[in-house]
Specification:
It contains 10 helices and no strands. By secondary structure, it is mainly α. It has 2 domains: 25-137, no CATH class; 151-285. The protein has helices at residues 25-28, 34-43, 45-51, 56-89, 100-116, 120-137, 152-177, 182-204, 209-237, 240-285. 28% of the residues are buried. It is flat, with a radius of gyration of 26 Å.
Length: 292
């Protein structure tokens, strides 16, 4: 579907759009390996097509099952790629609870086995297909990502909190699509970018989690619910007042997150200055040069 171009100087465009920072590249980049999973999905149709040229009910059933298993393997692999992309983009993250890419490789091997025919030859084809899947998509992340010098309890708290916050952002993004309004989608994308900037600030220093908890939980949850209600109402009424009120809410949330993030950065700088002064005092006591 064609979409109208919108920007800072376009009719109905936001006047502040030009001043908005774009989110980190990793958050906007296309999903790595997406084209390959689409190829797998397309290939899963071949056993189904050939099933109608097979003699007997057994061959028909095996080929249809092979197509279904191959398609399922492609879907599971795609979800594994999404989980890996989220793990890569974040500084503090737990490894995926379910190794989806590994399951995708297994399903691909089983699908090829069924398509080739159950037997020694089919087993070889299945193993080769699973090995090629691993070569094409790699393995799932096998370890947690954290920060040196920060205890495990703090990193776990940050990881869990940000995972929940990301769910709120995804729900907002899905809900605003129902409004069918390009400007609303753009405004929600701006808020999501601001929220993720705060996520990175908290990941840089997990001690900031307590100060930012309301924005990562309560406020984003409220924004998610407000977005859902706005989309349901606006798609029916197209009332500009409803849209203006919703945008005002997003403005307040965005401004609040900017202020809180700036406060966190000032706090981090203060902590650094204190550490530097303490270190200089120790060097002076030991009779070592401090560079002042």
């Amino acid at each position: 579907m064609a979409r109208r171009f919108g920007g800072q100087f376009s009719p109905g465009g936001s006047k502040t759009a030009g001043a908005v920072k774009t989110p980190p590249p990793a958050l906007n980049a296309p999903l790595p390996g997406r084209a390959r999973t689409q190829i797998l999905m397309a290939l899963s149709v071949l056993p189904v097509i050939t099933a109608f040229f097979q003699g007997g009910a057994t061959g028909l059933a095996l080929n249809i099952a092979a197509g279904a298993v191959l398609f399922g393997g492609a879907v599971v692999t795609r979800e594994g790629l999404k989980a890996e992309a989220a793990w890569t983009a974040r500084k503090i993250a737990r490894r995926p609870a379910v190794p989806r890419k590994a399951f995708g490789a297994i399903l691909t091997g089983v699908g090829v086995l069924l398509a080739a025919g159950i037997g020694p030859a089919g087993g070889v084809y299945g193993l080769v297909a699973a090995a090629l899947h691993v070569a094409a998509f790699g393995f799932d992340p096998m370890k947690d990502k954290g920060m040196e010098g920060v205890d495990t309890f703090q990193t776990e708290r940050v990881a869990r909190t940000i995972e929940e916050a990301e769910k709120h952002l995804s729900a907002m993004q899905d809900a605003v699509l129902r409004a069918r309004d390009r400007e609303a989608e753009s405004r929600v994308a701006r808020v999501i970018a601001r929220a993720r900037e705060m996520f990175r600030a908290v990941e840089d220093d997990p001690r900031d989690l307590t100060a930012a908890r309301k924005y990562l939980g309560v406020y984003l949850m409220g924004a998610r619910d407000a977005t859902a209600k706005f989309a349901d109402l606006y798609v029916q009424t197209q009332d500009p007042t409803v849209k203006a009120d919703y945008f005002a809410l997003l403005d307040d949330l965005e401004q609040g997150m900017d202020t809180k993030r700036a406060t966190l950065l000032v706090s981090d700088r203060t902590d650094l200055d204190v550490e530097i002064e303490v270190l200089r005092d120790r060097l002076k006591r030991d009779g070592l040069p401090t560079g002042e």
